[in-house]
Amino acid sequence: MYVIRLPDGTLRVPQSVLLNPDEGTDEGRIIAQAYVEIGPDDPDYDRLVGQSLTEAELEEKRRGWRDGDADLLRQFEEWKAGRDD
C-alpha cells in the first residue's frame, strides 16, 4: 500500500489494524488494511508527503505491474513448454 496524495493536498495513509478480542484463539480476530486521511497540520505530513504518489502515478505503477505480469506469464509458459518436450 502506498501513501496517496489527493489533488487538495490531503494524504491517504495506509493503516493496518489487528484486533484479537479472544486472546489465545483465532476466533474474533480481525485483520484489516485501510487508509486514513491526514492533512498538512498532521505531525507526520511532512515526512509522508515526500514518498506519496498521486492517484495517476499509482495507476501507472499498477499498469506496469500488469504488463510485467503478462511478460512473466509468457516466459513461464515458454519455459514450461520446453520442459514438456
Can you give keywords for this protein?
85 residues, alpha+beta, 4-stranded mixed β-sheet
Structural features, described:
With 85 residues, this protein is of the alpha+beta class. The protein has helices at 45-49, 55-84; strands spanning 4-5, 11-19, 30-38, 53-54. A 4-stranded mixed sheet has the order 3-2-1-4. It is flat, with a radius of gyration of 20 Å. It starts with a strand and ends with a helix.
How would you summarize this macromolecular structure in one to three sentences?
The chain is α+β, with helices and mostly antiparallel strands and 85 residues long. It is built from two helices and four strands; from the N terminus they run βββαβα. It has helices at 45-49, 55-84; strands at residues 4-5, 11-19, 30-38, 53-54.
Secondary structure: elements and pairs:
Layout: E1 4-5, E2 11-19, E3 30-38, H1 45-49, E4 53-54, H2 55-84
Parallel strand pairs: 1-4
Antiparallel strand pairs: 1-2, 2-3
Tell me the number of strands.
4
Adjacency order of strands in the biggest sheet: 3-2-1-4
Which class do the helix and strand fractions yield?
alpha+beta
| Beta-strand percent range | 25-35%
Mean pLDDT: 84
Pick out the low-confidence regions: none
The biggest beta sheet, please?
A: 4 strands, mixed
The geometry reads as flat
End-to-end separation in angstroms reads 41 Å
Radius of gyration: 20 Å
| Count of separate DSSP helical elements | 2
Helix % is 40-55%
Order of helices and strands: EEEHEH
